[in-house]
């Protein structure tokens, strides 16, 4: 269960960073932060991929030792 919770934490972080990047790009009052919005949009998929790879790695080791 801890593995799933960790993955969900990565997923939540991915969603927050992605939505923050989109919001920065869409809100006209934040035009001076355009570069930050683009950075967040580029960073978000990496966070998701790291979380997914870690989840699969840990799941593989759990099954290896507990099956």
Would you summarize the structure shown here?
Its main location: membrane. With 67 residues, the protein is mainly α. Helices cover 85% and strands 0% of the residues.
Layout of helices and strands:
Elements: H1 2-26, H2 34-65
Helix pairs in contact: 1-2
Would you write up a description of this structure?
- The protein is an all-alpha fold.
- It has one domain (about 1-65).
- Helices cover about 85% and strands about 0% of the residues.
- The protein is built from two helices and no strands.
- Helix 1 (about 1-25) packs antiparallel against helix 2.
- The chain is rod-shaped, with a radius of gyration of 16 Å.
- InterPro entries: DUF202 (IPR003807).
- It is a multi-pass membrane protein.
Number of domain units: 1
Percent range for helical residues?
over 70%
Number of E strands: 0
Beta-strand percentage range: under 5%
SS content category: mainly alpha
Summed over residues and divided by their number, the pLDDT gives a mean of: 94
Alpha carbon gyration radius: 16 Å
Shape: rod-shaped
List SSEs in N-to-C order: HH
Largest sheet: none
Give start-end ranges of low-pLDDT stretches: none
Number of helices: 2
Question: Oligomeric status of the shown chains?
Answer: single chain
**End-to-end C-alpha gap:** 16 Å
Based on the model shown, name its key terms.
DUF202 domain-containing protein; single chain; membrane; transmembrane; DUF202; 67 residues; transmembrane helix; mainly alpha
